[in-house]
Structure formats: structure tokens, C-alpha cells
Amino acid sequence: MKIFKYASILLALISILFLSSCSSDEPTAGGDNNTPAYMSGTTTSTSPDGVAFTSQDTEYEVVLDYELMQASLYINGARFAERMPSLNIEFLNLAFTTGVDNSIHIDVADEFIPTMSGRPQPSFPISNLVADYTIGKGMTLNFNCTLNGMMTYSVECEVEY
Fold first, then answer.
1. Is there a contact between 152 and 48 (Cβ–Cβ < 8 Å)?
2. What is the CB neighbour count within 10 angstroms for residue 113?
3. Where are the domains of the chain?
4. Which of 88, 33, 83, 80 is nearest to 60 (CA)?
């Protein structure tokens, strides 16, 4: 009988803790400082000769640092061409601005160097990056990637939670 009483009290405490942690006042996923948001969707890349490649396998992660007003984008399983192996690419410390409805805007016209596993990849510079991310909904992401200084691919992404 005592075991049942203690189990009931423990269950009540767990329920109270669980319900109090699910307050509707808490920010949505990806809205807290340095809390990642995970998304997936359609990625379409277009080669210089106009051939488009579409993938649904890529996963996107956004991490926002509100103190520095910087976002890091992690593209996991990226493939921009049929014969390209999937890669994990990082766009780190990109300046962002905030808008209405929990929106984040990133606009980097200048060329920057992405990383893979923390290592800079100067053979694949990124330029003309524009991202519009709405916390709890999804993101559009567009950028150019130049391969070894020879060919520039245009990449368009529509991703959601």
C-alpha cells in the first residue's frame, strides 16, 4: 500500500513538472539563443549550362546567436549534382536581421568560404547568399557556389519543419 502511495505522489510530481515545462510562452524550436532548428525540403541546383538537379535528401540546421546577431547554417547531406557525393557543409557566423512574425533575414552578397567538418574549403566559395527563415515554419535559401574557380552553380532551397 505504501508503494502505491509513493508511486502516486511521484507520478503527480512528474506530471506537474511536465506540464509546467510545456508553457505556451516558450519560444518555438530554433528561437532560443543557440538552439538548433532542423528542417528538410527541396534543394534545386542549376549548373552553368542550365541543367537542374533536385534533391529531397538534404537536411538543414539553423543556429541563431542573438547576442552577436549571427546565424550558422549547416547543410547535411548536400548534393548539387547527380554524381556529387553527399557532403556536410557549414556556413558559419553570417550576420542576420530580425523582422516581424519571428522572421530572420540573411543577405551576404560578398564571397565567403564555407567549412566542412570545421575545415575551410577555399575551392568552393559561396556568394550571393540570401536566406529568409521564419521560426517554427521554414526557410528559403539561395546562393551561388563556384567549383574550383571554374563553374558556378545556383542553389535554391525551400525547407520546412
1. yes
2. 13
3. 27-160
4. 88
- Reading the chain (161 residues) residue by residue, the pLDDT tens digits are 444 343 333 333 323 222 233 333 333 345 567 789 999 999 999 999 999 999 999 999 999 999 999 999 999 999 888 888 999 999 999 999 999 888 999 999 999 999 998 999 999 999 999 999 998 899 999 999 999 889 999 999 999 87
The grid coordinates listed for 101 are 512574425
DSSP 156: E
Q: Could you tell me if 110 and 127 are in contact, meaning their C-beta atoms sit under 8 angstroms apart?
A: yes
CB of 34 closer than 8 Å to CB of 65: yes
Of the candidate CATH numbers 2.40.160, 3.30.70, 3.40.50, 1.10.10, the domain formed by 27-160 belongs to 2.40.160
Length of the chain: 161
